[in-house]
Amino acid sequence: MRHTSHADFALRVLLYLRVAPGRRGSVGDIAQAHDISRHHLLKVVQRLAGAGLVTTSRGRGGGVRLIRDPSSISVGEVMRVMEKDFAVVECLGPARFCRVAGVCGARSVFSRALDAYFEVLDRATLEDIAANDLGLRGALGLVPGAGR
Predict the structure, then answer these.
(1) Is 144 part of a structural domain of the chain?
(2) Which residues are CB-contacts of 98 (< 8 A; sequence separation ≥ 6)?
(3) Cβ atoms within 10 A of the Cβ of 21, count?
(4) Residue 34 Cα to chain centre, angstroms
(5) Alpha helices, DSSP H only, in 1-148?
(6) Can you give the CATH number for the domain in which 102 is found?
(7) Is residue 148 part of a domain?
(8) For the purposes of burial, counting CB atoms within 10 Å of the CB of 17, is it exposed (0-12), middle (13-18) or buried (19 or more)?
(9) Is residue 39 part of a domain?
(10) How confident is the model over 40-91, as pLDDT tens digits?
């Protein structure tokens, strides 16, 4: 299974905010730190804000701010917010045109696998994946004098 770039970018935004001073940053700063498109990041931030994970404000001193405790944000929740389709095989999707659907055991196997996948992602929090504060700050250019 592969997630979209928006899901990847969402985790990058949240990682940045988790280690940034004041848990805030501008979309431009976050895009530059990760070397990704500001335009794409705007869409991601809007979706994260709609889900109640971040808040945004305009003007001087504005930007994106993490509004929930990082230990309360699971990676599974972020993936569900950002992704629409987790049907790794056709029979898990809304339209089932497979000739052997209903008589094949694959649907059950893939369904259990997807449940196990989310069980792992739901146990991992933003706090867990951003535990290396100093390393992340250095890699993202948030430490004075640190190069990327």
Answers:
(1) no
(2) 90, 91, 104
(3) 8
(4) 14
(5) 5-19, 27-34, 38-50, 75-82, 106-123, 126-129, 133-139
(6) 1.10.10.10
(7) no
(8) buried
(9) yes
(10) 999 999 999 999 999 999 877 779 999 999 999 999 999 999 988 777 677 7
